Amino acid sequence: MLDIRDLQVRYSGIQALRGVSLTVNDGEVVALIGPNGAGKSTLVNAVSGIVPAASGNILLDRVELTSMKPWDISGLGVLQVPEGRQVFPELTVLENLQLGLTALRGRHSETKLDDVYDLFPILRERSAQFAGSLSGGQQQMLAIGRALMGMPKVLLLDEPSLGLAPVVISQVFAALRTLKSRGMTILLIEQNAHLALELSDRAYILDQGRIVQSGASKELAKDDAVVSHYLGVMADA
Ligand code: ATP
User: Which residues, including other chains, have CB under 8 Å from residue 212's CB and lie 6 or more apart?
Assistant: First the structure.
């Protein structure tokens, strides 16, 4: 469904992605893991059209996204849950969720508010509260719920566990497992590589702007070199 080919991204003076190729098939959960500064957020931001590609291709169902604007890309159902949640603090929970509907444009929605509330019951309880008054974990749930309102074809999750307590991470990942069981297509960026490999079908390891390894998540989790180079470091981080 998502096909990234030889993607290069540069910020002034810094080459953040050096020819990255990656695919996400329909209904698959794919993890992108790697150390700080590897270029993970750059990759999802390039897919969303937030940062421009210097060269390479990003295709959704063979449609070229590379020169499209973020508004048009989200309209196709490529929906990002950004690092740091980015909810609108001065709007209520319900208003934040309703904003997610703007990504639908002409697409038909089967997602109902109740589906999101059933996935995250705390959001139902807090629907009239300002988003800024929620805990970090509740804001993460809200950010995921907002994306779900737009019926993602591909859900891009940028570090959903960042800064959350272990018990809250478990709740968020339980919801992600539910979405996976329903066949949602997900590209997951995650600093917690153990969690990411547990949830995902396949994974890529990004280091200094290059994919250095990829494969079935179960196999990568058993690979001694991967564990000592990446999982050990990131698990302690
Ligand atoms: P982290 O886990 O720390 O968020 P990451 O793997 O997501 O890391 P990126 O945030 O994509 O990595 O950063 C990749 C490289 O690009 C880093 O060297 C970073 O300093 C640089 N970079 C990221 N955003 C910008 C920007 N807006 N301007 C200049 N350089 C940037």
Answer: 205, 206
Q: Ligand 1 centroid vs 234 CA: distance in angstroms?
A: 17
Q: What is the pLDDT of residues 53-78, one digit of tens each?
A: 999 999 999 999 998 999 999 999 99
pLDDT at 237 (0 to 100): 42
User: What local confidence, expressed as pLDDT, does residue 121 receive?
Assistant: 95
- Mean pLDDT, residues 109-127: 90
Contact 107, 100 (CB under 8 A): no
Sheet holding 2-11, edge to edge: 14-24, 2-11, 55-60, 63-64
209 within ligand 1 shell (Cβ under 6 A) = no
Contact 213, 205 (CB under 8 A): yes
> Quick one: 167 exposed, middle or buried, by C-beta within 10 A (0-12, 13-18, 19+)?
exposed
- Tell me, what's the pLDDT at 35? 87
Which one-letter amino acid corresponds to residue 177?
R
Q: Which tens digits make up the pLDDT trace of 70-103?
A: 999 999 999 999 988 899 999 999 999 999 988 8
Mutate-to-test residue for ligand 1 from 7, 11, 230, highest number of ligand atoms within 8 A of CB: 11
